[in-house]
Amino acid sequence: MFKDSFIILRKELKRMFTDRRLIFMLVILPLIMLPLMYSFMGKATKTRQSEISEYTSRIVVCTALGSEESTELFLTSLAALNTEVETINSQSIEETQERLTSKDVELLIVMPDNVDDRLLENEVFDLSFYHNSTADFSDFAFSQVELAFAAVSEAVVRERIIEGGMSEEILSVFTINESMPAESYDLATEGSIMGKIISMMMPFFIVIYLFANSMKVGLDSVAGEKERGTLAILLVNQVSRLSIVLGKMMSVMIAAIVGATSSAIGLKIASRYLIGMYSDTGEAIVEYTMTSTALLQFAIIVIPLAILISSLVLIVSTFAKNVKEGQGMIMPVYLAVMVMGVTTMQIGDTPPNWMRLAPLFNSLVVLKDIFMQTAVWGNILFAVATSLLVSAVLIFAILRMFNNERVLFRV
Amino acid sequence: MLRVENLSKQFKGSRGSSAKTVLAVNNLSFQCKPGEIYGLLGPNGAGKTTTLRCLSTLIKPTSGNVFIDSYNVLEHGKVFRSKIGFLTSDMKLDGYFTPDYMMNWFGRLNKMEDDVIQERKSKLFTDLQMTDFIHKKIDKLSTGMKQKTAVAISLIHDPDVIIFDEPTNGLDIVTSKAVTDFLVSRAEAGKIIIISTHNMTIAEKLCHRFGIIVEGEMKEEGTLSEIIEGSNWDNLEDVFFSYILPGGDHV
Q1: Are A232 and B157 within 8 A, CB to CB?
Q2: Which residues in chain B have Cβ-Cβ distances shorter than 8 Å to A11?
Q3: Which end of chain B is more exposed for a tag (fewer CB within 10 A), N or C?
Q4: Enclosing domain of residue B97
């Protein structure tokens, strides 16, 4: 039986690795596309960030009666920022608000009346900040000025304390970790810090890459053969249908692993560009190295996961009348797997128990553990066992379909 | 000896059709001896292909059975497949590979040793005049070349029973002759051959016995002279049309 499966596998692999178009899609494209895509995105993000930080914000300050002296205090703090300040009176507020909407200015600050006296009498007053949240520059000006004015507020409080004859130390009760260097109080190992960042996203990427690459080959594997009429000639030969299913499943699994490896290498190359976008993530991928134990655990979990995903794709491919129908049918399954991937991105260090029990979920959670170097062999073996068990059930269902002439020939 | 006994095949009706089931083949019986070419004749939709698919193990009969010697199709599917070579017009080959590669591949799937495959390949390539194109991709071959390749592949394991559905359909006259001559030579070598066709000229020239199927039922069965003697006609074509044309004796 296995001999026949390997004969089928060899033909499928020959098809796969001598078809230039398929090789390009499976191996070359991820190696080129991911670095290209991330470098473009990284460059665009960096350019935008520097555009925003170098931009001279246009800020309008509306003065009020009895607030002349205090307004000067705020204007001085604005002068330290990269801003262009314009002062108006209350009659021009509406017009300035329209300018904000049309993005002609970034921020309008309206001073209340009698701030000078309220300051002297320690009375709290409210400043009105108008901005346009749909404009990046306005958002940036808002947060910048908010910080600058918080510093003004802190300075005034400090002055009041000193004037009251008290020490400014009254403002703080205690500090945390200021007497120690950072590396002495964070007891996480370097690997697990990097792994924490990697473990957030890599299980998601791995499951998506495995699924996407399974689809590239798996949908054509049975549905394509049905469509082209090449399956029937195989079925009238002396090969068992289980051998056909196993041969095809192994070829889809190999395609998934080859494609996912290529995508992972592409991601590693692309990681330097990710630094521009999400600095922690990029650095983590560049610097992260797996221990030999983690690599072994990774291989042990990924192969059954690839078998499970290949079986999922193959069951759809077997049921579908043709590749187009298969593509439509596989989408909900793909989306469900994506949701599982995203869910495991969101969970913390201790996933709920049901996740450790549910097939596919438990492989993703264990992958997370492996990247954080906290994986437990019991969890790994349980995830492997559930993946293989579900795969066996799926292969049994595919075999039933192969023996069902209504599914196979749509008669 | 191949024996078809009371073979029936019923399909579920397609969506939107009023009939819940369709009886594609109804209680069909015939037999065929070694060295004989049996022609299954019938218009489109008569049930010829369904009958041949039941014989090839691709689909299961609803009732009845098919025997090759002491083996039956319901219980000995794998043995059955080792004894038959089956080809229909809707069975295609993977165009990415060459005839030579596909012959090796199917040979291995049929549990043949490499030296036996080489020997068998060389004979089939010569008999079917294929040597010029065995290393070209199947996608690049003409219809006739593809048909010859399909014939060769279906016979790689030297089966006792050869079942071909419309073997000359769509072929030019030269390729058609090459295929029919080859079938005659196989019959002379003691193989059982069953073909389905609409082409009465080919049928008359090639077959020793005939079965005329209309709407899944066997209307006439026997040698050419037996069929003509029992009818008002003097040739097979007229007998055939008498079953299917409006105004025909049996319509």
Answers
A1: no
A2: 97, 105
A3: C
A4: 2-244
